[in-house]
Design goal:
This protein has helices at residues 3-6, 13-17, 22-36, 61-69, 89-104, 115-126, 151-158, 221-231; strands at 46-50, 73-75, 108-113, 131-137, 181-185, 205-209. By secondary structure, it is an alpha/beta fold. It has a six-stranded parallel beta sheet, sandwiched between helices. The longest helix has 16 residues, at 89-104.
């Protein structure tokens, strides 16, 4: 990790206060469902959705329900609240990924919100032969551990230091997974420094910018559409997100 990444500061108190808009973003998601129904349908492959810090599968239910209606075999992480990388958590995730891969006979797409996105990236590094692609939502993989407003909560919940990386769980967080990878981020994120949630651009990795809160990212209409767009790509034919046409009005240029 670069010195600049280590020195990133967490979002301002003003942005953190504005996280309250996550509730209105849920209302926007419900109101946008008729339009979101125009998003491309899936091919039935398995999708595993991992929740953020201190959240559970209940937090990802709107996204999972939508993706199920789009034709995917969707699963939550099945471990209750995400209280960090406690004993047994890693093994439970790897076992679930193997179970989904074996049950459906196809590679699994991984979606992770915040801390869940860090897990998704590391799982893909450990088991790339079982992973189709990775999509992260506001996940601070490219920043220092204290570039978020949640690091103290993480330490209290997990009993681990925020800067304690486990080399046995995929190695360095900032390294790009060896599978197609999309990082969705927001410059108005009130929890994680947005610069640390961006992926390096390559032939198989990209960043998509949305105008969203952190706590509402899992159900923000623009995020949900982008996720559906990414998942619908035929396996082995991944291409970067197309911001052309009407999409340029909703998705800012992340490199601006």
């Amino acid at each position: 990790m670069s010195v600049a990444a280590e020195r990133l500061r967490p979002p301002s108190k003003t942005l953190m206060f504005l996280e309250g808009r996550a509730l209105s973003e849920l209302g926007a998601f419900l109101g946008a469902l008729p339009l979101l129904s125009l998003a491309p349908r899936g091919d039935g492959h398995s999708v595993l959705v991992l929740p953020g810090l201190v959240a559970s599968d209940a937090s990802t239910r709107p996204l999972r329900s939508f993706l199920k209606n789009r034709g995917y075999a969707v699963s939550g992480w099945r471990q209750g609240r995400n209280l960090g990388l406690r004993p047994g958590v890693q093994h439970a995730m790897t076992d679930l990924l193997q179970e989904l891969n074996d049950a459906h006979g196809r590679k699994v797409s991984l979606i992770g919100w915040s801390l869940g996105g860090l897990y998704a990236r590391q799982l893909a590094k450990m088991m790339p032969e079982r992973v189709r692609q990775v999509i992260t939502l506001g996940s601070p993989f490219a920043a220092g551990p204290k570039a978020t407003n949640a690091w103290r909560v993480y330490e209290m919940a997990s009993g681990r230091r925020a800067d304690q990386e486990d080399a046995r769980f995929g190695g360095s967080l900032s390294g790009t997974p060896p599978v197609p990878t999309t990082a969705i981020f927001s410059r108005t994120d009130g929890i994680c420094a947005w610069q640390g949630c961006m992926e390096k651009t390559s032939a198989t990795s990209e960043s998509i910018e949305v105008e969203s809160s952190h706590c509402g990212m899992g159900h923000h209409p623009a995020v949900v559409y982008a996720v559906a767009d990414r998942l619908a790509q035929p396996e082995g034919q991944w291409k970067p997100f197309d911001r052309g046409g009407w999409r340029s009005l909703i998705y800012p240029d992340p490199s601006r």
